[in-house]
Write a structure and sequence with these properties.
Serine aminopeptidase S33 domain-containing protein; AB_hydrolase_fold; Rossmann fold; 8-stranded mixed beta sheet; Hydrolase_4
Length: about 280
């Protein structure tokens, strides 16, 4: 793998940040039942990132999730319980300037902080005696952090999940109003999701809405085609747009993720279910 991500000053230009990030500051709310907050020191050593961990079981797989550019950690309070209900721990990462996290968002900060969050979540899982594998997942802009971690930290990650992600950055940046040509920004200077996923051999699940007009499904098709994983799955949700995939898919969304996780981690297989059934039957005798 290459050295950790380094960006050019052009990607940290204020006009790029204004187009790409939509931070919403809000006070820390009380975590819902079964969830705990995890405060992470950002890569700059000063900013604090307010993350939240929804816990199902210490033996369950843990998904580290990076949300979209207009969301916050607390937006996923209800979603967290849906993940734990299907037997998955769900940790939502934050970005500088979002929710109760301090600092200001930028491309460099987002990428470098993802490593700091990953390290902190690993340590937290160890401190909690979690024994399940760790997966990374990113939605929309969050796919950048998830793909970058899967590229650089593959030895520590069991699988990659991408929801509403993109292969090429320039079309997205330009659609958001970023003057890429004026700032002389090229695709090679951007996130390189397409190039990175080619080198990622981790099992990969890609989810996308068929009616996504912000990031067209063609972007997901490129990610699927370029993925270096032997075990890769691609699911398009009919009728779903960029921000309604989970709502349109409903319970099938969580079932699909759980099924994928089971397949790559070897958990909840029919043999294990049969063994538990026998054990429960013996306990009632």
């Amino acid at each position: 793998m290459t050295e950790p991500y380094q960006t050019t000053t052009r990607l940290d230009h204020p006009r790029v940040s204004a187009a790409l990030f939509f931070p919403r500051r809000e006070p820390r709310n009380a975590p819902p039942a079964g969830a705990v907050d995890l405060d992470v020191t950002a890569a700059d050593g000063r900013s604090r990132l307010g993350c939240r961990c929804h816990v199902s079981d210490s033996s369950a797989p843990t998904i580290l999730f990076f949300h979209g550019n207009g969301e916050t950690v607390s937006d996923y309070d209800g979603t967290g319980s849906s993940f734990t209900a299907v037997g998955l721990n769900f940790v939502i990462a934050s970005y500088r300037g979002y929710g109760w996290s301090s600092g200001e968002p930028s491309v460099t900060a987002m990428i470098q902080d993802s490593g700091a969050v990953f390290d902190s979540v690993q340590l937290w899982c160890l401190a909690q005696s979690f024994t399940g594998p760790l997966l990374v997942m990113g939605r929309s802009l969050g796919s950048v952090s998830a793909i970058d971690l899967a590229y650089h930290r593959s030895a520590d990650i069991k699988a990659l999940i991408i929801e509403s992600g993109f292969a090429d950055a320039l079309p997205l940046l330009e659609s958001l109003g970023c003057p890429c040509r004026e700032l002389s920004i090229t695709e090679d200077e951007c996130f390189n999701n397409r190039a990175k996923i080619t080198a990622i051999e981790l099992p990969t699940l890609i989810l996308h809405g068929a009616r996504d007009q912000i990031i067209p499904v063609a972007e997901a098709e490129v990610l699927q085609a370029e993925s270096g994983a032997r075990n890769k799955q691609f699911q398009v949700v009919p009728g779903a747009d960029h921000n309604s995939l989970m709502a349109v898919a409903g319970s099938l969304y969580f079932a699909a993720i759980r099924q994928f996780v089971d397949g790559v981690t070897g958990t909840n297989t029919w043999r294990q279910r049969r063994r538990r059934f026998k054990q429960e039957g013996q306990s009632h005798n």
